[in-house]
Amino acid sequence: MKKMLMIVSVASMIDQFNMPNIDILKKQGYEVHVAANFEYGSTSSKERVEELKKELTGLNVQYYHVDFSRKIKNVSENIKAYKQIKNLMLKNEYDFVHCQSPIGGFCGRLAANNTNTTVIYTAHGFHFFKGAPLLNWILYYPVEKLLAHYTDVLITINKEDYARAKKSFKAGKIKYIPGVGIDTKKFNEVIVDKLAKRKELEVPEDGFVILSVGELNKNKNHETVIKSLAKLNNPNVYYVICGQGILENYLKNLLKKLGLEKQVKLLGYRRDVAEISKASDVFVFPSVREGLPVALMEGMALGLPVVCSNIRGNIDLIEDYKGGYLVAPDDVDGFTEAIHEIIQKYSLRENMGEYNKESIVKFDIDNVKVSMEKIYFDAEYFVN
Hints:
384 residues; alpha/beta; Rossmann fold; 2 domains; seven-stranded parallel β-sheet; six-stranded parallel β-sheet
């Protein structure tokens, strides 16, 4: 039987990005194995990771824990992870591997090169990009350029990364696909009792609700929106954040300092994000770096107007003044003005929300599946 190995740094990348890929591979007759860190680093809760393990077992997908660290400086841990991956490849003799994330891509491609295994690599957003810190270019660009030589198929998910890869990298093939895809039909069918959901979240019926979804870390940049909320100085505006992370205590202290404890809700990991979205008025996404963000696509599919950072990935999705507003990630005043404009004009946010629902269709999961099916089918004929 044909066998393949999917390599990601943390289990939540399987849960959030790769279940449709597993379905494609199984339908093509592959025995699918998965390697990830199932203990640390996931954006999903521990309970959700345990559920994922059961789901994989139910699908006859073998999963392996690998000691990946999400931090590049943890060299010893990632050397250990590389050895674990290499041993899996030697033991199971995979037809090909599909690796993702910088660390998963690094370990997976090195091991594939040393075991003569065909390799597909999906870059969910290079760490070097227009406006990225110089250190990112120094650390990540040379590594990605070198490892491209060991890559049979390099998949990029936004236009900036695709253009750079085509210009500078020497992979076997370089492909663009529109992200990991979302099920727009599913989001069209979401129904929620808006008043009941707001009551659950302790938000007034007539309050204006801003929603963000993402880890509580520096990259997701929730601090900028919190500071914008302070500048708005409107007690009827509420900011709800779905996500967990290392900055939780820092953000709580910031809220206390700014007197916003009652207006900002840190909800932690949630499984009802779609329902919360339907009870919200605007989706705000201030990230510093993205590939092609699923959370933003979901907000669009649910018909929300958007205020987001004008960065790679986001600009592939949002058209300024049509689906929302694009603002520099550190521009507190810009976020404040954009949110204020949407608060003031009901018809504007209605029109923006409808525009987003229509424009997101081209990123539907069915379109992505067609591309991935072709890539996986062709993997049988790649020559190392």
